[in-house]
Specification:
Elements: H1 18-22, H2 25-34, E1 37-41, E2 44-48, E3 64-70, H3 76-79, E4 80-81, H4 86-91, E5 110-111, H5 119-123, E6 127-134, H6 142-151, H7 162-167, E7 178-181, E8 196-199, H8 217-226, H9 231-246, H10 248-251, H11 266-280, E9 286-291, H12 307-325, E10 333-338, E11 359-365, E12 372-374, E13 392-393, H13 394-405, H14 410-413
Parallel strand pairs: 3-9, 3-10, 6-12, 6-13, 7-8, 7-9
Antiparallel strand pairs: 1-2, 2-8, 4-5, 6-11, 10-11
Helix pairs in contact: 11-12
């Protein structure tokens, strides 16, 4: 392999888009709370947007969907490389992945070499990729695209995400059915009238001050205050009481982060917590988690250095450790990873890639017809503004997941949408 000189740079690149710099956790939390009733439980948040959503005791989940959002617009052409198209190499003379290093090649596509930890899933038929997926129309704004892809109901004025609609299809209405692992902020995909929970970690699901020194006094006071209250906030608080109680078996499970070789990264720590939730088997049917830092306008790099190498390695090692950690619960978990949009075909002058359109989706676990690539990619163009054309609406992929794995109504989860047959999922 030829050694590529590294460009001069003095520090790691900061996020390039002003949208990321302007966003604050406080702003997101305030926006979410203004649209519904939110109960804060220690470091956890339970959101119930309407008073009609009553709490129910948690039960066991037959299937679990884990949605991994690659925030910042991951470059699908680096993760799953269309190496048979010469335009790919013409457009990326410095950052293209050499064909000789690719994994799981099929004559058209190959995996980035840093995805090697995922090869056992690929060879066992539990990992697949669908290329050239995305929104119906280009949207190069990170947060407008996130909103659109997580709402998944174009033209509707109703504030409800597709996962909240999915939770509404699962019998019962416990907040445990929908869970966001990531700092207590409910993403757009989970927001809506059906109650859900968000927390930064498993041990954060508790009432602040309810500890061994309090002897239950704070919890008794909260029950006195809220048990008889009506309205959305009272509903949210009663959901919080039930959920904290139901979550105790999860908190009793071990954190196998070290034993299962999770990376010491935000994604590794988050997926180790998701594994605890799934192993606790208390009725969680949908979990969301994020991996950030995919907005690579600069320093995408090569196989020797750069942000793509680091992020791809973290992604692969975290997912591989997660599926190992699931143990006996592995056979019911399906993971879908995707991003708000892709990157341009051509590299820019900063060893990076600017906002694009079409992208790749990765699916792993139960029900996935893996070990192959899906989707149709049109021949690439190598001009400065060339995009990956979207040939498969991302909702077609998700429709197969929610109907085959969770038995949900496609029309209810994705209103007005007529999916095409992708064929990536098998029936239960």
């Amino acid at each position: 392999m030829t050694t590529t000189p590294l460009p001069a740079r003095t520090a790691e690149a900061a996020p390039c888009c002003d949208e990321f710099a302007r966003l604050s956790r406080r702003g997101l939390l305030t926006g979410g709370a203004a649209l519904g009733a939110t109960a804060v439980v220690g470091s956890a948040v339970i959101t119930a947007a309407t008073a009609s959503a009553a709490s129910a005791a948690a039960g066991k989940a037959d299937s679990v969907l884990v949605v991994l959002s690659l925030r910042g617009a991951a470059d699908g052409l680096s993760l799953v490389v269309p190496y048979s198209d010469p335009a790919y190499y013409r457009a990326r003379p410095r950052i293209a992945i050499p064909k000789s290093t690719l994994l799981a090649t099929d004559g058209t596509f190959g995996l980035h070499p840093e995805l090697r930890p995922l090869l056992p899933l690929w060879t066992s038929g539990e990992l697949a990729a669908v290329h050239a997926t995305g929104l119906p129309a280009p949207n190069r704004s990170h947060f407008a695209a996130m909103e659109a892809i997580e709402d998944a109901d174009p033209g509707s004025e109703r504030r409800q995400g597709w996962l909240n609609r999915l939770v509404g299809q699962i019998p019962g209405s416990s907040p445990l059915q929908g869970f966001n692992l990531g700092g207590g902020v409910v993403p757009t995909s989970l927001f809506g009238p059906n109650p859900v929970m968000a927390a930064g970690d498993v041990d954060g699901v508790r009432f602040a001050g309810d500890d061994e020194w309090d002897e239950g006094g704070r919890l008794r006071s909260l029950h006195t205050l809220w048990d008889g209250q009506r309205g959305a906030l009272g509903t949210a608080m009663r959901s919080a009481f039930d959920s904290v109680s139901d979550f105790e078996p999860v908190k009793a499970t071990a954190d196998n982060r070290t034993a299962r070789s999770y990376p010491n990264s935000e994604l590794g720590r988050a997926l180790s917590q998701v594994a605890r939730i799934v192993r606790g088997d208390v009725g969680v049917g949908v979990v969301t988690v994020d991996q950030g830092a995919w907005d690579m306008h600069t320093d995408v790099g090569t196989l020797e250095w750069g942000a793509m190498r680091r992020n791809a390695a973290d992604l692969a090692a975290s997912i591989a450790a997660f599926f190992t950690d699931l143990g006996s619960q592995r056979s019911k978990v399906t993971l879908v990873a995707f991003s708000e949009f892709g990157r341009r075909v051509a590299e820019n002058d900063s060893w990076g890639l600017d906002h694009g359109y079409g992208n790749v989706m990765l699916l792993a676990g139960a029900g996935v017809k893996g070990g192959r690539y899906y989707g149709t990619m049109r021949p690439l163009e190598d001009g400065l503004d060339s995009d990956v054309a979207v040939t498969t609406d991302y909702r077609s992929v998700l429709s197969e997941v929610v109907t085959t794995r969770l038995g949900a109504s496609r029309a209810s989860v994705f209103p007005g949408f007529q999916p095409e047959d992708v064929g990536v999922m098998s029936s239960l």
